[in-house]
Write a structure and sequence with these properties.
116 residues, alpha+beta, 4 helices, 30% helix, binds guanosine-5'-monophosphate
């Protein structure tokens, strides 16, 4: 069940400010409020989806690929392509997800000390 009062839903509705990197009618990319790397940007679709699996199952292949195509545009805009980066999505309790709206973390700008 999607919680319409989660933080990212409030950001989408403009109820909470954020430092935007890219936005259009379908997606928003903005800086994480508590960055763990020099570059730490979050990317979200504006449609209601709780996590990665929910996003994939509720959307068309075009919508899904557009989200990741735009993610790549943002990565280029951030200037982190050459030195590298991480793209991470946490899902559910075991994944350590805090905000129940599907999002990706883009991390870079320095060596990112997160290993899997
Ligand atoms: P998760 O643990 O759910 O994958 O990541 C949620 C992320 O959202 C965290 O990195 C956290 O710092 C970030 N975050 C939480 N609240 C806000 C907020 O109000 N604004 C922004 N820009 N980021 C937030």
């Amino acid at each position: 069940m999607y919680d319409e009062n989660n933080i990212f839903a409030k950001i989408i509705r403009g109820e909470i400010p954020c430092d935007k990197v890219y936005e259009d009618g379908d997606v928003s990319f903005f800086k994480d409020i508590n960055p763990i790397a020099k570059v730490h940007v979050l990317g979200i679709p504006k449609s209601q989806c709780v996590d990665f699996s929910d996003f994939i199952s509720k959307n068309t292949p075009t919508t899904i690929s557009e989200f990741f195509r735009k993610t790549n545009l943002v990565i280029k805009k951030l200037g982190i392509t050459k030195d590298g980066y991480k793209v991470i999505s946490n899902s559910g309790t075991n994944g350590g997800q805090e905000v129940p709206h599907f999002h990706i973390h883009i991390l870079g700008g320095e060596k990112v000390n997160l290993s899997i």
